[in-house]
Structure formats: C-alpha cells, structure tokens
Amino acid sequence: MLDRKPMQLRLPPEMKAWIKAQSQKNGSSQNSEVIRAVRDRMERIEDQAAT
C-alpha cells in the first residue's frame, strides 16, 4: 500500500477555479488534476534533462 501524506496547498483563486473546472471537465477530483499537472511538469523536466 502507498504511504500518502496529506499536504495543505494554498493556491491563488484563479488557479483553484481552473483546477475545479478541469476536474469537472474530466470527471475527476481536484486532487487528481493537481497530481496530473505535477506529473506532466515532472515528465517535461526529465525529458529536457535527457536531451
């Protein structure tokens, strides 16, 4: 089982609204949208480092 620790995240209102809209559009949770965004960023950075 994964060991997941809660993390409080403070976002500007426009970011919070965007995440909420994305979650509704994709039928997912806001938490999932934050994870998706961070993973996308991680992959881009790793891809840049590999080239």
TrEMBL record:
Gene3D superfamilies: Met repressor-like (1.10.1220.10). It comes from the Bacteria. GO terms for molecular function: DNA binding. Residues 8-42 form the Arc-like DNA binding domain. InterPro entries: Arc_DNA-bd_dom, Arc_rbn_hlx_hlx, Ribbon_hlx_hlx. GO terms for biological process: regulation of DNA-templated transcription. This is Arc-like DNA binding domain-containing protein. It comes from Citreimonas salinaria.
